[in-house]
C-alpha cells in the first residue's frame, strides 16, 4: 500500500476539524456520548476524504529506440578515440 501524500494528510485533517466543529454547532450536543459520536463521525469523514484523493503517480517512461545516428557504422579510429576519452574522464586536466 502506498504512503499517503501531504495533500491527503492536510485535506483529511482539515475535514476532521471543520466537520467536527460544524456538527458540534449544528447538533448542539452537550453529552459525552454525543461529542464522542460527532468526533467519530468527523474522523470517518476525514478518512473518506483523504482516501478519495488520488495518490501521486509517477509517469511511466517508455523505452525509445536509439537515434539513427547511434546505429551508424563506426570505424576503428572512432572506437579508439572514444576509449581514450573514457580513460581520461576522471583525471585532472593537468595530468594529461
Automatic annotation (TrEMBL):
Highest taxon above the source species: Bacteria
Keyword field: Membrane, Transmembrane, Transmembrane helix
Keyword Transmembrane: yes
Residue stretches spanning the membrane: 9-27, 33-53
Presence of keyword Membrane: yes
Protein name: Uncharacterized protein
UniProt organism field: Streptomyces pratensis (strain ATCC 33331 / IAF-45CD)
